[in-house]
Amino acid sequence: MVFTTVAQFVRANINKIKGPDEFWRKRRIFRLTAHFIGRKRNCYSLAIRGAHRALQYATKGRHLKKKDMKDLWLQRVSAGSEEHGVPFPVLQKGLIRSDVLLSQKTLSELATWEPRTFKALTQLAWTKGVEDGFNRIETLGEPPKNVVTRGMLTKEVYLSDDETKK
Amino acid sequence: MRNIFERVKQWNTLTRIWHLYDAKWQDPFDSAKVIQKYLKGLHKPIYHPLADCGDHVVVINCKEIAMRGDEWRKRAYFHHTGYAGGGTYTLAWELHDKNPLMIMKKAVYRSMKGNLQRRYTMERLHLYAEENVPQDIIENISSVIPQLRDVPMRLDRMPEDQVKGYPKIWDLPKDYVVR
């Protein structure tokens, strides 16, 4: 296209130079601030500052939400394991050594919705702790007797003299 | 809900439980950390900070709490009336003489983070100086929080014959002056 004057050029390319129409440009911001209170909602110069701040908070919040959920799962799992007399560190270490690689989230859901399954896991961890000699594991009391770990199956059994004679 | 036991199990999970804690010879600050867990419901796998899942805790024998070392003489509680020069420092033993529940109450209160929920959580804490608890409180109790330390037997309260019959390793010489 050929433009004979600058004014004609500007009129044809107004959107490229100025950006979108003022009304619609502002409206995009006002959509973000529609739920704010006070002048931040309707006065553009305040609204755009509020919108910027809100988006910054949202970015931080996405990370914080993940952290909060992790903390909550940790709290729930340790509460569940202490119900069965096993401190959380013992549960965690015992399960990892038994090759039970469940996430914190899964464990917390098991503790709430499948308490018997969760109890079995705590007992497994406890038995593993006794087998591997965790620090101060004997203070937890009598370990459960209904658990068979992989280590027990491969362990050599030494019989006393009387039993070998039979 | 499959059967009546499942129903009771759910009911047990979602109701408030009343716990009993005997503070005799216990450190109030260590005890507070345990008690606040029950008050807020942190001991339940269904815990959520916005869910109202905390339990009641009845603490007896608050008068008989124990503090380590010089704490009774050295620990000071600050109070300010709001007027100029209105600040006072009360030593722990003085405060305990005035009100035997105050140290335990402040210990639990300070063990929790300051938020809007703290005052309501504190209302679920019931403190008693001695063992006599009103009947309407005691009939709710269905659980006991284990003590942090065993209460040791005091020599002056042991039965006479047990003290006499205790095996001796050696006798003091007759001319030894006991100071």
Structural description of this entry:
The complex is a heterodimer of chains A (166) and B (179). By secondary structure, chain A is an all-alpha fold. Chain A is 69% helix and 0% strand. Chain A has ten helices and no strands. The longest helix of chain A is centred in the middle third of the chain and has 40 residues, at 44-83. The N and C termini of chain A lie far apart (109 Å). Chain B is of the alpha/beta class. Chain B contains eight helices and six strands, in the order αβαβαββαααβαβα. Chain B has helices at 4-14, 28-40, 71-74, 92-98, 102-111, 118-122, 135-138, 160-164; strands at 18-22, 56-60, 76-80, 87-91, 125-127, 141-144. Chain B has a four-stranded parallel beta sheet, with helices on one face. A two-stranded antiparallel sheet of chain B has the order 3-4. The longest helix of chain B has 13 residues, at 28-40. Chain B: It comes from Laodelphax striatellus (Small brown planthopper).
Number of strands of chain A: 0
> Largest beta sheet of chain A, briefly?
none
Looking at CATH, the homologous superfamily of chain B is Ribosomal protein L13
What is the level 1 CATH name of chain B? Alpha Beta
Radius of gyration of chain B: 22 Å
